[in-house]
TrEMBL record:
Organism for this UniProt entry: Adonisia turfae CCMR0082
Molecular-function GO term, any one: sequence-specific DNA binding
Keywords, comma-separated and alphabetical: DNA-binding, Transcription, Transcription regulation
SMART domains: HTH_ARAC
Protein name listed in UniProt: AraC family transcriptional regulator
Residue ranges of the TM segments: none
Occurrences of domain HTH araC/xylS-type (ranges): 238-336
Entry-linked InterPro entries: Homeodomain-like_sf, HTH_AraC, HTH_AraC-typ_CS, PchR_regulatory_protein, Tscrpt_reg_AraC-type_HTH
Organism lineage: Bacteria, Bacillati, Cyanobacteriota, Adonisia, Adonisia turfae
Amino acid sequence: MADLALTFSTSNLSEMFAEAQQQTGAACQSNVLESVYTLEKPFGRLTYRCIRLRQGLELSINQLQLEENLRVIQTTQNYSALGLSFCIMGEFRGQYQGSSAVQCAGPSKNFLGLSQGDFRFITDYSAKHPIYMLTINVSPEWLGELCPETIERESLGKTVNVQTSQAKILGTIGWTTPTMLAAVQQILACPYQGKVKQLYLESKTLELLALKLEQMGQPELSEDNKITLKTDDVHRLYQAREILLTDLEHPPSIIELARRVGINDFKLKRGFRQIFGTTVFGCLYDYRMERAKQLLDTHNLKVAQIAQTVGYANPSQFSAAFKRKFGFSPKNYRSQRQAL
């Protein structure tokens, strides 16, 4: 395993990446909105994009293509930020010094953490698959003005809770819902440039924060409604969701979906509620609507074509479903977006 040690004296992402560049010799390309850092080493290639949206709100998109396993040892001083990270591809494990909790991140998981003070964080990245991550970095002061009760919420420290004389670290791992995933994909596929790009990315970043805060506020399933899920069951449920969302025009029935992934329909239905927070077809509905909204934003397709693309043979049924989800018909939604 290769080691990469970094020391930071700031909680501003762009300044952190600049410090990392000085310590590693990474190549850098910058413009007014973003900076891209690329580090080529024998252990692999690391690419970090840092996008400055506004004071106190930044976005980073990180890609690692590793030839061998990598351990990054991050020592941070005078840090104060709240971060929301989405693992899109690959796997990694992270641990704060002084905490026994190990964060295991993989596709369809996200981590919300508040970190303040001086601490060390160790991350082990696997070389099995490319690693692709998206992180939102928010100053607690900015978020506190917007949503003052958020950072004091007890559920924030559910996975990690370290409070010492030198540091305060609270964190929680959650499942990435189809609606969150759609917003992440829209950020990655942003079709705009310049100020419009900045505005679009800021709106999607705030949307992700809102979705995560909403998720944290939802009551958990009672113990009576929970079922025991083995690691293999969880993998099968993720496989089922992938199958379900791959063919929007001809999705399988619950019985067929359960058969294809090798679990019974009861475990499939309960497992979806337990892991993804929705029903099987609630998941499909949410993804269809988010995909339709993305097509309305970025393509000039007719509403009937979009309806067919997301699995509705009847445009009227599609329009009713879209309005039920967003409060606007597809035509009205597009008109309002074009008027901006």
